[in-house]
């Protein structure tokens, strides 16, 4: 006797051209119940134009996580203002870890905005700890996440490069950053970098 997995039964499924509902004439009640649910879900998604046909997230953004991330950022700022730069790095790092572990259904732009600020802030703390490679990595990540209206990150990237003696790359970073908005601090640093390049006989 053949098992149920070896039996194939073709069902006469039909799609209504007007409503796009799926039906199965003569099908069993269990199948029809499933199709009714499927049709209802299709109608809901079709009506919700804001979602552009994409199902809504299972839960809204968790305010507790957002609050915890903001708390770490604020704690980092407090430590930074007090001159505790290593503590500031630690607080910003905790905030970054929290933001990066947001559930995948939460809006990606929310996470990007959070971590680009935290990376930029941590870059400045690293600069004042003389951790120039770390500062460069953080500032570069912040710039990659947000180029416009992110002058501080552009400046910190170039500053880290300058302190590492990579003057040509620092100039390139500043010129690139100034394309996204004029900034007095970047202009001042650019003049310093170009002076260092000229002293080394490097033409730019």
Description:
InterPro entries: TPR-like_helical_dom_sf (IPR011990). Keywords: Repeat, TPR repeat. 27% of the residues are buried. A hairpin with a 6-residue loop joins strand 1 and strand 2 (22-23). This protein folds into two domains: 12-51, no CATH class; 63-199, Alpha Horseshoe (Serine Threonine Protein Phosphatase 5, Tetratricopeptide repeat). The protein has a two-stranded antiparallel ribbon. By secondary structure, it is mainly α. The chain starts with 13 loop residues before the first strand and ends in a 5-residue tail after the last helix. It contains eight helices and two strands; from the N terminus they run E-E-H-H-H-H-H-H-H-H. The longest helix has 21 residues, at 108-128.
Q: Short summary of the structure?
A:
The protein has helices at residues 29-47, 63-81, 85-100, 108-128, 132-145, 151-163, 167-178, 184-199, and strands at 14-15, 22-23. The protein has 204 residues and is mostly helical. The termini are far apart.
